[in-house]
Amino acid sequence: MEKLLHVEDLNIEFHDHLIPETVVYDFDLDMEPGEIVGLVGESGSGKSMSALAIAGLLSRHDMKKRGTITFNGRDILNCPRNQLRDLQGDEICIIFQEPLTSLDPVKKIGWQVEEALRIHTKLTPAERKAKALKALEDVELNDVERVYDSYPHELSGGMRQRVMIAAATIGNPMLLIADEPTTALDVTVQGQIVKLLKKINKEKNTAILFISHDLSLVSRLCDRVMVMKSGYVVESGSIKDIFENPKEEYTKKLIASIPSYDPEAGKEAEDDVILDVKDVCVSFDKKINGKNTNVKVLKNVSLKINKGEVIGLVGESGCGKSTLAKAIVGLQPIDSGSIEQHEKYPQMVFQDPYGSLNPSKKIGFILEEPLKNLTDVTEEERHKKAKEMICLVGLSEEYLERYPAELSGGQRQRVCIAQALMLGPKLLIADEPVSALDVTIQAEVLKLMQKLHEELGLSILFISHDLRVVGKMCDRVLVMKDGVIVEQGIKSDIYDDPKHEYTVSLLESAGLLKKN
Questions:
Q1: What is the pLDDT along the chain (516 residues), one digit of tens a residue?
Q2: CB of 112 within 8 A of CB of 163?
Q3: I want to staple 10 with a disulfide (CB 3.0 to 4.6 A). Which of 67, 105, 233, 514 is the partner?
Q4: How deeply is 124 buried, as exposed, middle or buried, from its count of CB atoms within 10 A (0-12, 13-18, 19+)?
Q5: How many CA atoms lie within 13 A of 128 on its CB side?
Q6: 482-514 b/e (C-beta count within 10 Å ≥ 16 → b)
């Protein structure tokens, strides 16, 4: 049987700087019709560049491409642009990581889902709408008429990603390229998207090139996997071979970096309460269908954290986790209830390190700012403290002279942790601190937080939607849904014997539910 896709010796070289930079070296890939292949590696490894070349979406002006890309017997690396357009959106489709930036904010969903049909078919408007509604139903969206008439901002992240899949598959493509399609999504929605891609593959025999840095997801979806590092494919093989018998050190490092549930509790917590939250309620005024409505976000939430304890708070986006975190540190007023803490300066580490740091200030200035605002220490003492903290989080003093843009994502997150520790807090609120990071960087930051917890005796409220991360880090776990803590207990009880159906669904989505 002829290969659906044949890529041989693909090299991609950028010419948008003074010195040309090669980002993909000698990339080879063969795919059969209906096959699912995973492409894994850290950010900057060349995964997305290879995928964009296959989709014909790389610029032809500021880069040089060499090699062969043959799709269904046609050379698509060097073919005229008009021939490539005939394939794009019809036989080859791509789903991107962030659906909100991929969808046109001023066009309704229906118009966008129908786009491939307008370009590649001669269907009437009524026929296009019927196919669009069917495509939205096929990706398991409810109330498809309402979705069809909605704008992207009126849908949740998971719904937007389903819309992207509907738009990509409406013309029954032979090849679907999914570029990090679940990275920004909750664990339950991730599981749903993976299940949906499997369904599309089975029912329509669509070949899927699945790009991710999440090896646990790749292992649940793909037949084969290719591992990329610094532009090279360093290892490839069946899922079983790669996961059970990896040959390359880099592959072993990636697999070892996957967070795993550790049933052993961490440090023994002291019987001394550092935070006591009682019956806290928070609500927001929100416009729904043109009317002002009071929406309750937190409903009588109560929790306690003891000194030296690491508590995990898990739940989907919108359940109230971040609102609770902001209420604890005084960034969100509460309607009722009480928050009693025995810590003068509880500190918060946010999800997006780049958005948390002032881009116009050097790291040294950023670290010293809390001391300037809240203490009377001298300039010399501030400099000394900044040096201590930057070293404590595993960076050298030279980073104090850099700007945030000059650091990697993992380095920026280390700086955010250092800044949170400048005032010597005993309580740290970590709100999704590793969800935006590659799996290897994620492992490094988690290891750092565990080290700081042990050395400084920190109490940590660790907020995440990733149960693997929480299972590795925490002593006790609280499960939140729709502003209510539906289940809580020591880690082993929650993971090994969940009582609430929502906890069961979370564990199942993460592949952690034990079969009885």
A1: 578 999 999 999 887 666 778 889 999 999 999 999 999 988 888 998 999 999 988 876 677 889 999 999 899 888 888 888 888 888 999 998 777 788 999 999 999 999 999 999 999 999 999 999 999 998 888 889 999 999 998 887 778 888 999 999 998 999 999 988 887 677 777 888 888 899 999 999 999 999 988 788 899 899 999 999 999 999 999 999 999 999 999 999 888 888 777 776 444 455 689 999 999 999 988 766 667 888 899 999 999 999 999 999 998 877 899 899 999 999 999 999 999 988 778 899 987 787 889 999 999 999 999 999 988 999 999 999 999 999 999 899 999 999 998 887 788 889 999 999 999 999 999 988 887 677 888 888 899 999 999 999 999 999 988 888 898 889 999 999 999 999 999 998 999 999 999 999 888 888 788 765
A2: yes
A3: 67
A4: exposed
A5: 19
A6: ebbbbbbbebeebbeebeeebbebbbebbebbe
For residue 88, the 8-state DSSP code is B
Please answer whether residues 308 and 268 qualify as being in contact, where contact means their C-beta atoms are separated by less than 8 angstroms. yes
**What is the value of pTM for the model shown?**
0.77
Query: Which tokens is 134 given?
Result: 């069917």
Q: Look at the alpha carbons of 153, 159, 161, 167 in this order and tell me if their dihedral is positive or negative.
A: negative
Residue that the structure tokens 């026929």 belong to: 127
Question: In this structure, are strands 207-212 and 36-40 parallel, antiparallel, or unpaired?
Answer: parallel
Q: 485, 479 in Cβ contact below 8 A?
A: yes
Report which of 456, 470, 465, 462 is spatially closest to residue 505, judged by C-alpha positions. Answer: 465
Q: Which H or E run contains 374?
A: helix 363-374
